[in-house]
Amino acid sequence: MLADFEKPRKPEKEEMKQYLKEEKEKLAACQMKIKEAKLPVMVIFEGWGSAGKGSALGEIIKNIDPRFFQVATMDKPPTEEERRKPFLYRYFIEIPEKGKFKFFDTCWMEEVTDGVLDGKLTEKEYDKRVKSINITERQLVDNGYLVMKFFFHISESEQKERLDALLADPNTAWRVSEEDLWENEHYKKCLKVYDRYLKDTDRGSAPWYIIDADNKKWALLQVLRFLNQGIETALSNSSVAAPIRQNVFRLNPMPKLRDIPLDKEIPEEEYKVRLKELQEELHALHYALYNKKIPVIIAYEGWDAAGKGGNIKRIAGALDPRGYVVYPIASPEPHEKARHHLWRFYNRLPKTGHIAIYDRTWYGRVMVERLEGFCSENDWQRAYNEINEFEKELSDWGAVIVKFWIHIDSETQLQRFTDRQNTPEKQWKITEEDWRNREKWDQYEEAVDEMLEKTSTEFAPWYVLESVDKKYARIKALEIVIRAIKEALDKKG
């Protein structure tokens, strides 16, 4: 893309002035349309050092109400805390809200290409990161985002001339970094790496726009034109449903809920002995996890009154409180609804060596949101594949993922609901919403069967915990978690 880049015709001076005025007015007029359409706009600026990214960004935001945009500068290496999260974590948490702009002064490209140029990123790691980026950008677009990516391109001689001019003036010399000088000295090597990355991440859903940056006003005009065109296209396509992607992951066969026997139980004395043994074993494994820097994700879904809370309590009771967190997931807050449905879970990922336990999860998209009409059919149909891709990203990061469906029958639920209703100290556990959900038992069962069928992958399998006898379900959960952790430790060596 860069190697064979042909410069477009640059307008004459008066033409340039008129065109810039028109495009700036267009962008200013687009703000309310973007807000009304709830279109989130993600604009990524990449390019050579001293190519004028900052200048263009400064000029563009002058035309936007400050309430409707933010700027993220991502040129610093990840912190120690960020390195203990998945590669895309620090970028994904920065995505814009619906109806707003987010401008990125460099994004995930720089971390990848720097890793290649420094020799710190292997070919396999490069391919994995590029794949993650392509999936993430596609997911964003499928979920209604406009992703605009600009690369500011200048020649080796032009870059050197600009760097020399900056260095010659004491007031601007500070703007030239060692990285800029190294880049110019190794221009051809960098060109090859940048060109490869641009080709590998140039996709129809989020294409690259190469900007001829030899002249600042010309560069600005090109960006404004592409940006306005992109916004107009996105607004006109806002009612078009995104395609449902085909699953590419191997799935484990799962039984239908109605076919699972619920007569499993464990005697009280055996339960007490096994609980003590398993909790002691898990406690010891927690320290091994920390030493090996392995993150663990334990996800709980299940019927109301099935025993999630008690099950989580027995897992958490075995762990060092400094190394785990339990997330009770409720309905999304307004600022969470305004972003990609997985955004709020990216914000709740554990660090390496830590354990995150989720009481309700990202699967709300294909259950409660599906059945209560909180998202469109296209949204929840797409979510199966998006969730599988999300969990694959976590698995590739090195996370152990264990997903539990806590299962009881309708009669058991009714008995427990009635007991809660009639016991004063338990009444806080039962709500009108629980009774309403119960009326939709058959619909929920159908949704759960489909969820289990479409998202039980080899890297993030589902386990059904038969919980008519809560004690049996607790022991089974502990055994499964311990087995999964041991397998991960063995692989780590």
State the main characteristics.
single chain, 493 residues, alpha/beta, Rossmann fold, five-stranded parallel sheet
List the helices and strands and how they pair.
Elements: H1 13-37, E1 41-47, H2 53-61, E2 69-73, H3 80-83, H4 89-92, E3 101-105, H5 108-117, H6 123-142, E4 146-153, H7 156-168, H8 178-185, H9 187-200, E5 208-212, H10 216-236, H11 268-292, E6 296-302, H12 308-316, E7 324-328, H13 334-337, H14 343-346, E8 355-359, H15 368-371, H16 377-397, E9 400-407, H17 410-422, H18 432-438, H19 441-455, E10 462-466, H20 470-492
Parallel strand pairs: 1-3, 1-4, 2-3, 4-5, 6-8, 6-9, 7-8, 9-10
Structure description:
With 493 residues, the protein is of the alpha/beta class. It has 2 domains: 224 residues, Rossmann fold (3-Layer(aba) Sandwich), CATH 3.40.50.300; 236 residues, 3-Layer(aba) Sandwich (Rossmann fold). It is 51% helix and 12% strand. It has 20 helices and 10 strands. Strands 2-3-1-4-5 form a 5-stranded parallel β-sheet, sandwiched between helices. It is elongated, with a radius of gyration of 26 Å.
